[in-house]
Design brief:
2 strands; alpha+beta
């Protein structure tokens, strides 16, 4: 869950409003995720964990709450490790 005070939320809100878009280099990935899992990817953010360039972080922001559930292990409260890969 992204809070309204985080940069991910602010960037994704601009996309939802039509004032910005997913970075061009990440659009094919968003389209693949949408096709593969039947979801609506609102935004993808590429960053680093604690600005450590050796630890990249990819955040996938989904449009709908029920889409998020498709990435969890069935009956479990954690993300499916295979889908994360």
């Amino acid at each position: 869950m992204v809070s309204p005070f985080e940069k991910e939320y602010k960037l994704s809100k601009l996309i939802k409003q039509g004032k910005a878009s997913i970075p061009a280099i990440l659009r094919p990935l968003a389209e693949w995720i949408d096709r593969k899992y039947g979801v609506k990817t609102l935004n993808i953010i590429y960053d680093y964990v604690d600005k450590d360039v050796d630890r990249p972080l990819l955040s996938v922001i989904l449009e709908y709450e029920n889409d998020k559930q498709k990435f969890y292990t069935e009956g479990r409260p954690y993300l499916d490790s295979e889908k994360q890969k």
